[in-house]
Amino acid sequence: MSTDAAQSGETTQIEVTEIAAEQALDLLESEDLDPGVAGLRLFVQQGGCAGLSYGMRFDDEPESDDTVFTHHELRVFVDPASMNYIEGSVVDYETGLQGAGFHVDNPNVVSECGCGESFRT
User: In its UniProt record, which GO terms are filed under biological process (predicted)?
Assistant: First the structure.
């Protein structure tokens, strides 16, 4: 069963900045996905030199056991296993000399690899 934590009054465990939500919603719409149903899946996978890495993709709808967060009209889907690693994180969109992209600020990280692509909790 999915829950919409941001709308049910529960403590929000994943946040999304306004600029990140705007960028993701633009991408969702360019993929012809309905932002009222579809959303950004944020997950953790094995890999990278530090052991774990973030993954993001668009899904048509949440899975039955996902937690669903809504920020700035963007729905974010997180599976239970990934939530253990990324609870309390903030998803942001950054621009700079090395390019632009989504960034996860995770308070649970104890070390990151040099390139910032993988982490350990």
Answer: iron-sulfur cluster assembly
Q: Which two tokens stand for residue 4?
A: 């919409």
How many domains does the chain contain in total?
A: 1
Cβ neighbors of 11 (< 8 A, separation 6 or more) are: 5
Q: What tokens does 33 get?
A: 């996905």
User: What is the CB-side half-sphere exposure of residue 14 using CA atoms within 13 A?
Assistant: 31
CATH code: domain of residue 111 = 2.60.300.12
Query: How far from the centroid of its chain's Cα atoms is residue 78's Cα?
Result: 7
How open is the CA angle 49-86-92, to the nearest 5 degrees?
A: 90
Q: What is the pTM (predicted TM-score) of this model?
A: 0.82
Structure tokens at 72: 């700035």
How does pLDDT run across 42-56, given as a tens digit for each residue? 998 887 666 778 899
